[in-house]
Every structure is written in C-alpha cells, then in structure tokens.
Amino acid sequence: MLTAENLHKAYRRQAVRVPVLNGLDLEVKTGEFLSIVGASGSGKSTLLHLLGTLDAPDSGRIFLDGKRIDNLPNRDRDALRNRVFGYIFQFYHLLPELTTLDNVLMPAYIGHSVLGWMKSRSKLRARAMELLTKVGMGHRIKHRPRELSGGELQRAAVARALLMNPRVLLADEPTGNLDAATGDEIVRLLRDLNRDDGVTIVMVTHNLDIVTATDRVVRMVGGVVTDDTMAKKPSFHSPLLAAV
Ligand code: ADP
Ligand code: MG
C-alpha cells in the first residue's frame, strides 16, 4: 500500500552533509501494524516525515497504492496529509488555547471551507465526540491541554489523528514521553484501532517493550531498513488470525 523505494536523504549542518537515509526500501502492507525501531538519530523520524509527505527525499520514490506521492504539487500533498494520513507525535502537539474537542476537530477546520464546515459541523462534532469516547476521553472534552495528563493528551491526539478517517496512521514515538503503564495503554489503543477498524499503522519507537503488540518489526541501521527477528516472537499476533 505504502512503498518507499531507494530513499536518500541528507541534512546539511553548516558545511557538513549528514547522510541519514542511504537507499532505504520499505513496504507497508494494507492493514498491518508495523513498527520501526532503531537507535536515537538513526533516521526514524526522517523516514516517517517522508512517508507522510511532510518532507521530501533527496532521491528515491514513495508510492501510495502504486501512485507516486513524493513529488506531488503542494495542494495534492496538503490533501493527502489531511485525508489519507493521520499523525501522532511524541509531544502530542495539541494547541494549548483549544479545548480537547476543538483540538480533535482541528483537521476538519483545516480541511473544509467555511461553508463546508458550516454544513458538516454537527456531523463532525458527533464524530469527534464518538472518537473521544472511543479513546476514553469522553469526559474531558472541555479541558485544555494543560489540564490533562500525558496519557490523556496522547489519547486526544489519537482521536484527532482519526477524525478524517485516515487510511494510514503514522506514529512517531507515541509513548516516548509516557510512563510504561500509560505507554502500554496507548499501544493497546492503537492495536485495537488496527484490529477493529483496519487502520494501517506505522509506529516508530526506540522502546522494544512495546513492539510485541505489533505485526512486524523492522530495524533502521545505517540509513536502511533490515527485517528484525523479533517479529518472530511467539507473542506475535496477527489481526488476520484473530479474526478467524
Ligand atoms: P530519530 O528519529 O531516529 O532519532 P531523526 O530522523 O530525527 O532520527 O534524525 C536523524 C539524524 O538527522 C540525526 O543525526 C539528526 O540530528 C539529523 N537531523 C534530523 N533533522 C534534522 C534537520 N532538520 N537538520 C539537520 N539535521 C537533522
Ligand atoms: Mg525521532
């Protein structure tokens, strides 16, 4: 569904060129919960940004359903970011002045014209409420971010990521700022979304404890991806098998 082909990416720091991705290939299958592990600085965030068209590779190509997406005009990339991808970050990135409900609705404010918003407002609010209930935040809709715990902030961020019915959730260290128990709850939530609603998830993490909940693990080393033997752990649990 989402394919990266021979990606190269380097950053420039003053006169120094820092290569991060060195011919990386990756294939994400429809409906899978993939985790990408790797040391800090190995390029996990860079890769996720490229997959989600938040940044562009120096060379190489990215395909969604066989269509190239890394070189689209801005307007098409905006649409992809709003409609196809959902993003979850380590530091939540909720807007401090907005209530939980308004934060969750933000992608819809952005994705609609004023008229379109007026027309679909009540439907979108109902959807936001439904999602907030689903992530266990139905009782916190009027709270502002500073009144919420880390786990609650991330739950709200998950609801926001889901608002536009994305096909792919891209999660960058979603548990990185949470204690172990709260982090487990967030991963369980993602696991349920993947299993019950078929959302494809790509999760980047350096926490090996949480990847056992996912279908497949790949590791980033030296700017490329290698398959990881951890994926063959006995606790490996396929959503397809669970459905049988
Ligand atoms: P990870 O998420 O695995 O920790 P990143 O993708 O954030 O790794 O970063 C990979 C490398 O690229 C690091 O060495 C980092 O310092 C560098 N890097 C990341 N973003 C930038 C940037 N915008 N400008 C310069 N260097 C960057
Ligand atoms: Mg990172």
Task: Give your account of this protein's structure.
The chain has 244 residues and is an alpha/beta fold. The protein has seven helices and ten strands. A six-stranded mixed β-sheet has the order 6-7-8-3-9-10, with helices on both faces. A four-stranded antiparallel β-sheet has the order 2-1-4-5, with helices on one face. Strand 9 (216-221) and strand 10 form a beta hairpin. Helix 3 (100-111) crosses helix 4 and helix 5 (150-162) packs parallel to helix 6 (180-197). It starts with a strand and ends with a helix. Residues 231-244 have low confidence and may be disordered. Bound molecules: adenosine-5'-diphosphate and magnesium ion. Magnesium ion is lined by residues 44-45, 172-173.
Identify every distinct bound molecule in the structure, by name, code or SMILES: adenosine-5'-diphosphate, magnesium ion
Helix vs. strand class: alpha/beta
Largest sheet data: 6 strands, mixed
**Total number of beta strands:** 10
Fraction of helical residues = 25-40%
Return the string of H and E elements.
Answer: EEEHEEHEHHHEHEEEH
* Mean pLDDT level: 90
Number of helices: 7
The first-to-last residue Cα distance is 23 Å
